[in-house]
Amino acid sequence: MEFYLTEGGVRTQLPFGELEISGNEELGFRPFQLMIASVAGCSASVFRKVLQKKRIEIDDLQITADVERSSEEANKITAIQLHFVVKGRNLKHDLLEKSLQVARKNCSMVRTIEDSVDIKETLEVVNLSI
Residue 94 belongs to what domain range? Predict the structure, then answer.
């Protein structure tokens, strides 16, 4: 990857498109936003793959990410709480919980930072009526 200095931050060109990164969110994505998006996006993608392999069908998946940062350490990210809300029919909480644990073990972004950032996941299951 190559990055180029811009007036407000840095820019890179990726296969999907151009990415603007800046400490000023009016000029681009803030680095901590990209970090959280990477963790949540990776977790969601791997979780979906695990569910597909287990033939568990879902109607919707939403993730909320709450972030704690340390003002004493350059606003370092110290904790990420990922709350997964899974909607579907005839879903079993225990099977989804086990699938989420498998996803965590296979998410490269979580594995990369788990020794320096406290990452917790919670699961909410919403069974829809037929």
Answer: 27-127
Structure confidence by residue, pLDDT tens digits, 54-109: 999 999 999 999 999 999 999 999 999 999 999 999 999 999 999 999 999 999 99
CATH value at residue 78: 3.30.300.20
Domain count along the chain: 1
d(Cα 5, Cα 105) in Å, to the nearest integer?
36
Asked if residue 64 belongs to a domain, the reply is: yes
Look at phi and psi of residue 90 and say left if phi exceeds 0, alpha if psi is from -120 to 50, else beta.
left
Rounded to whole angstroms, the Cα distance separating 25 from 49 reads: 32
